[in-house]
């Protein structure tokens, strides 16, 4: 379903706040209310094809001035609704929040025209489409294994990882250990992944070793995948030359080695530009391999039950969960879902002559595809931006996929699906909130593999949706949904599903909130594997302008108190140094929207000469604010991280930089600093950069200045002065 205005922007949980603790910021989330005056703002057309602010000449042009003057009034009237100190109001109801205006609206890319628009957000919501026509064809209960479609006998081997994992019988004492005892950890160095940390609560597990060579037979891939995988992965193999293994890149080989052991995995070095697609192919192979084996087991047992003698009762055929969905894949945009489905199709098609039957393929292409001509050709953005926001970037979707032997069914009802692909917002609107009449999360009860890809982007959308999902996964269903309890595994009946669930978490960075998901919401009995490499240099080495950097340390007693401590430190120690008119052209970079609102209210109260830009600001107000700042008519510019994430404009006229908090993405630090070179009339010697940090910012700090400097800075309580010459 695509509710109208369902994915308008939101506020965030502060990136440093411990997820499980209740802070003032989290309390605000419970009081968010719809604001009437903001509704018109949310409908603002954000078409970037009419950008008039990409160069100074354009900013001074008649067209730009007319745009700014036409709106009239101050820029803040086009921003979020007025908030009084201590009581914030927000544009949308809490459960619908997504960090900024929908990525699709902020970047002005509409969906490609499809043959059916019942789910098209441009046409409003009519009804969520599900494929009911092919229900019997894809039913696990009424179908049987075709002899040529899979190697069922091979799956009976004791060394098969799928059988080993799912057939393991835990005892009550094991569950008690995992609930009460701390995990024991060990670390090792792998050739490609680097520092790998293994942790487990149960008896010490054997530490995996990175295999230099991988025989496809050792991986126990389901029959069709052994032949299709090398073809699907061919483009990445040619990029790395001739690897030792003929079907995996070095990165894929090590990642798949962990995935295939059914351990949880956290890999925080996913890069949309370099390794994103090869990682996607690796986890798609693992997910599809799991589904094919699980379904083959069910179909094989169907035949055995059919052929057994009357009156024979056996308990040997427990091969299912309480509900059918086994794999949940969380991805940020429709384009990601499109690529995943295409990989699945390629993996299932043995050759050009043996095409698989894909139901509703045309509809899927229309709703999840994009028209390349819709994107304005004159936009200049960094390569990583183009890679992340490629294709259809709508962030409100969900789709069920059923796979049975040689056929695939798209838009399968959730309770008839093997795989569910969804965005955090898409899954949140189904789960709903407590007290709502229409909500459902039973389909999450028997998820065996959870894949969360590009987790860092959810920090820019709404992290609360991810937390909400983790609270509702692997719970006992409220309804039986027609399940045959004689076929349900005991682990599901005992409500132990979460101890068998494998979680694969991929991110572009390490972050306290992402770490919290892995540390507090993953209970896999086999254990967890996390890649923990430390940055040696940091993004400060990519700054090309000569700029003095002053890192000012603030003290705080706890993670929750650092929010107020930072604000007090800023207004008492930092801001007074910039009040003088000589310190004009000061940009204040604010990662948290809550902090931005707090600062904006304070600046208004103190009657400071400032303007501001956030993810909610109308385009005309953005143009006007940039012009005021460039010409020096406004001394300060408050600037949010999410606006930069979704727009990546070059802000001209900066002479003084203040990072109210270190950026979530380390490369944003060098990117913002390098904006100073766009100031033609600036003098290098007068430029300044001030950064606020605390001991709780260790990960972010290391990503900016490197691990060695971070260690020195955290040991010392003095301010640190660094000078970047542009040659570092």
Task: Write out key terms for the chains shown.
alpha/beta; 18 strands; elongated; developmental protein; UTP25; eleven-stranded mixed β-sheet; 728 residues; seven-stranded mixed β-sheet; 2 domains
| Share in helix | 25-40%
Structural class: alpha/beta
CATH class of the largest domain: Alpha Beta
Stated plainly, the CATH topology of the largest domain is called Rossmann fold
Total of helices: 27
Q: Distance between termini?
A: 50 Å
Gyration radius, rounded = 27 Å
Q: Tell me which CATH architecture of the largest domain applies here.
A: 3-Layer(aba) Sandwich
How are the strands of the biggest sheet laid out side by side?
Answer: 1-2-11-3-10-9-4-8-6-7-5
Number of E-state strands: 18
Biggest sheet features = 11 strands, mixed
Q: What shape does the CA trace take?
A: elongated
Determine the strand fraction and express it as a percent band.
5-15%
Q: Into how many domains do the coordinates divide?
A: 2
Query: Residue ranges: pLDDT <50 for 5 or more in a row?
Result: 1-75, 81-126, 148-157
**CATH evolutionary superfamily of the largest domain:** P-loop containing nucleotide triphosphate hydrolases
Give the overall average pLDDT. 80
């Amino acid at each position: 379903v695509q509710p109208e205005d369902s994915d308008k922007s939101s506020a965030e949980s502060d990136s440093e706040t411990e997820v499980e603790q209740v802070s003032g910021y989290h309390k605000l989330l419970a009081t968010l209310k719809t604001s009437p005056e903001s509704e018109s703002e949310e409908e603002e057309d954000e078409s970037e094809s009419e950008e008039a602010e990409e160069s100074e000449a354009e900013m001074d042009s008649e067209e730009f001035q007319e745009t700014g003057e036409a709106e009239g009034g101050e820029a803040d009237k086009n921003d979020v609704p007025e908030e009084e100190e201590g009581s914030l109001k927000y544009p949308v109801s809490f459960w619908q929040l997504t960090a900024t205006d929908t990525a699709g609206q902020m970047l002005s890319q509409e969906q490609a025209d499809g043959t059916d628009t019942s789910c098209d957000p441009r046409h409003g919501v009519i009804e969520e489409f599900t494929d009911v026509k092919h229900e019997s064809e894809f039913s696990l209960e009424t179908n049987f294994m075709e002899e040529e479609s899979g190697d069922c006998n091979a799956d009976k081997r004791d060394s098969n990882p799928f059988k080993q994992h799912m057939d393991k019988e835990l005892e009550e004492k094991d569950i008690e250990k995992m609930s009460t005892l701390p995990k024991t950890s060990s670390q090792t160095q792998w050739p490609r992944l680097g520092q790998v940390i293994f942790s487990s609560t149960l008896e010490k597990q054997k530490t995996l070793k990175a295999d230099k060579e991988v025989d496809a037979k050792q991986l126990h891939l389901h029959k069709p995948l052994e032949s299709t995988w090398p073809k699907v992965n061919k483009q990445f193999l040619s990029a790395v030359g001739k690897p030792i293994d003929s079907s995996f890149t070095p990165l894929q080989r090590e990642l798949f080695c962990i995935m295939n052991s059914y351990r949880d995995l956290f890999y925080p070095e996913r890069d949309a530009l370099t390794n994103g697609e090869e990682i996607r192919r690796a986890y798609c192979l693992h997910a599809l391999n799991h589904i094919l084996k699980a379904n083959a087991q069910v179909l094989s047992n169907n035949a055995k039950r059919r052929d057994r003698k009357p009156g024979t009762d056996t308990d040997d055929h427990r091969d299912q969960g309480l509900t059918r969905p086994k794999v949940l894949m969380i991805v940020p945009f429709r384009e990601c879902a499109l690529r995943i489905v295409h990989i699945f199709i390629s993996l299932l098609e043995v050759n050009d002559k043996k095409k698989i039957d894909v139901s509703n393929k045309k509809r899927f292409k229309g709703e999840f595809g994009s028209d390349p001509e819709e994107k304005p050709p004159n936009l200049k953005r960094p390569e990583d931006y183009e890679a992340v926001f490629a294709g259809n970037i709508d962030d409100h979707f969900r789709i069920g996929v059923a796979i049975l032997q040689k056929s695939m069914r798209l838009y399968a009802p959730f309770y008839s699906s093997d795989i569910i692909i969804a965005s955090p917002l898409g899954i949140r609107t189904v789960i709903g909130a407590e007290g709502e009449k229409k909500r459902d999360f039973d389909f999450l009860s028997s998820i065996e593999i959870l894949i969360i890809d590009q987790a860092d982007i959810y920090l820019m959308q709404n992290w609360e949706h991810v937390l909400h999902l983790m609270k509702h996964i692997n719970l006992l269903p409220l309804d039986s949904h027609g399940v045959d309890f004689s076929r349900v595994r005991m682990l599901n009946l005992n409500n132990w599903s979460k101890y068998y669930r494998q979680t694969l978490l991929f991110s572009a960075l390490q972050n306290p909130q992402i770490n919290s998901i892995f540390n507090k919401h993953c209970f896999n009995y086999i254990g967890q594997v996390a890649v923990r490499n430390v940055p040696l240099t940091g993004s400060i080495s990519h700054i090309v302008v000569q700029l003095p950097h002053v890192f000012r340390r603030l003290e705080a007693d706890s993670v929750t108190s650092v929010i107020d401590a930072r604000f007090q430190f800023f207004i008492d120690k930092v801001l007074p140094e910039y009040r003088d008119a000589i310190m004009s052209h000061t940009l204040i970079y604010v990662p948290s929207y809550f902090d931005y609102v707090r600062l904006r209210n304070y600046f208004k109260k103190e009657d400071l000469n400032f303007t501001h830009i956030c993810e909610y600001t109308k385009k005309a107000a953005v143009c006007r604010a940039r012009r005021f700042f460039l010409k020096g008519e406004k001394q300060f510019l408050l600037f949010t991280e999410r606006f930069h994430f979704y727009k990546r404009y070059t802000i001209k006229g900066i002479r003084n930089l203040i990072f109210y908090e270190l950026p979530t993405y380390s490369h944003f630090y060098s990117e913002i600093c390098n904006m100073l070179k766009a100031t033609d009339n600036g003098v290098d010697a007068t430029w300044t950069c001030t950064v606020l940090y605390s001991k709780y910012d260790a990960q972010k700090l290391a990503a900016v200045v490197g691990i060695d400097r971070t260690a020195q800075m955290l040991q010392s309580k003095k301010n640190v002065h660094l000078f970047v010459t542009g040659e570092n």
